[in-house]
Amino acid sequence: VLAIALALLALRLAAGIGSFVHGRNKLGHIDRFAQSHALPLWLARLATGVQIGGGIALAVGLATPLAALGLTVFGAWATVELIHRKGEPFAAPGRHSWDAGLMYTVVPLAVLLCGPGAYSLDALIAAR
Questions:
Q1: Gap between the Cα atoms of 28 and 42, Å rounded
Q2: Residue 49 and residue 108: Cα distance in Å, rounded?
Q3: Dihedral over Cα of 56, 41, 30, 90: its sign
Q4: Contacts with 13 (C-beta within 8 Å, 6 or more apart), sequence order
Q5: What is the pLDDT of residues 89-123, one digit of tens each?
Q6: CA distance 65 to 45
Q7: What tens digit of pLDDT does each residue of 31-70 get?
Q8: CA–CA separation, 79 vs 98, rounded Å?
Q9: Are 57 and 16 in contact (CB under 8 A)?
Q10: What is the pTM of this model?
Q11: Under a CB-based contact definition with an 8 Å cutoff, are residues 123 and 61 in contact?
């Protein structure tokens, strides 16, 4: 049980912090992000908000199902975008590839299916 709780914490922290950083890096450049992916500006803003807000929420384990769902959907969209529209390879050292997008899809999906674990704000709130 301890190992599972620690594994879920590690998954939440890795995907949450990574998503937050990716979203934060878009701030000030959302219009460029929208153009490079042929998105309407409102959808680019929503995607950035999901990465930032969902990343923070996933990392601390607060509203975890909602955060994990949002990040799973965003990760899946980004991965499909990289594969089909940009034609990127699965893994290519020194080049952009879609293997990281797959991880940003699968990790929040695993948390969505397994729950946030014992070391989360959701568990702390539920214990009260």
A1: 14
A2: 16
A3: positive
A4: 59
A5: 999 998 888 999 999 999 999 999 999 999 999 99
A6: 21
A7: 999 999 899 999 999 999 999 999 999 999 999 999 999 9
A8: 6
A9: yes
A10: 0.93
A11: yes
* CA neighbor of 14 nearest in space, from 110, 118, 96, 104: 104
% the chain with pLDDT above 90: 92
Tokens of 22: 């990716």
Contacts 24+ apart (CB under 8 A), 94-102: 101/75, 102/75
Orientation angle between helical segments 2-24 and 64-80, nearest 10 degrees: 60
**Residue 102 C-beta-side C-alpha neighbours within 13 Å:** 9
Residue pLDDT, tens place only, 71-84: 999 999 999 999 99
Tokens of 50: 């999901």
